[in-house]
Design goal:
The chain is mainly α. The protein is 68% helix and 4% strand.
């Protein structure tokens, strides 16, 4: 079991590296062709045409991503433990466990404790190539921890603290005890238009669109993938 878990972790790390190359545009065509040749032989994901229609990835990209996902995780799922281990490697000077927990839950749309390939690709499609509104809707979901359709101060504070913990000693300016709460207060002052103590999706989107600094602060996932 330990060997399978380790192999799955290594595979998802390779998958993330491929995603970074996809985003930067450095995934060369000849590399794609090489990968495709192996992919076509090894795996033919069910519903590939449907996923192509539902996402912003091409069929070739989906095949490459599927191969990385399925070859190294034969069960076809990634659990939270593996997800946390991956993030720990990207942020060795901090504690990424809580942020990884919240991020995992945002990908785990069925709330069954695991991320399937479809869950993973659908989320990535939005975050990497979605419209501005789609990205903000997904980010709102990340902050709406209890899934009640609102972001309250406690939820935002938990996410902000998780981000500071993840960045560790490289947080700038240096973290003081009240800094996360100050950020939350500033966010709520701008977002909570009707001052009812919670932020709705529309309030969230409008505030982010009106404030470029807030937009960058909210779109955190793009900085850590």
């Amino acid at each position: 079991m330990a060997g399978c878990t380790c192999r799955c972790r290594q595979g998802v790390l390779k998958l993330i590296q491929s995603l970074q190359r996809l985003v930067s545009g450095t995934l060369a065509k000849d590399n794609i062709d090489d990968e495709l040749e192996m992919t076509t032989v090894c795996h033919r994901p069910e519903g590939l045409d449907q996923l192509e229609a539902q996402t912003n990835f091409s069929k070739q990209e989906l095949q490459i991503l599927y191969r990385g996902f399925k070859n190294e995780c034969p069960s076809g799922v990634v659990n939270e433990e593996t997800f946390k281990h991956i993030y720990a490697q990207f942020f060795p000077h901090g504690d990424a466990s809580m942020y990884a927990h919240y991020l995992f839950n945002a990908f785990d749309t069925t709330n069954n404790g695991s991320i399937k390939f479809k869950d993973f690709v659908m989320g990535l499609s939005i975050l990497l190539r979605g419209t501005l509104r789609e990205k903000l809707e997904w980010t709102f979901l990340l902050y709406d921890i209890n899934r009640d359709g609102y972001i309250n101060r406690e939820e935002m504070t938990e996410i902000v603290r998780a981000i500071y913990d993840m960045m560790g000693k490289y947080t700038y300016p240096a973290l003081k005890g009240d800094v996360p709460q100050q950020h939350v207060d500033a966010f709520f002052q701008k977002m909570d238009k009707n001052k009812d103590g919670v932020v709705t999706l529309e309030e969230f989107i409008i505030a982010c669109q009106e404030d470029e600094t807030m937009m960058r602060s909210m779109q955190l996932f793009e900085n850590v993938i």
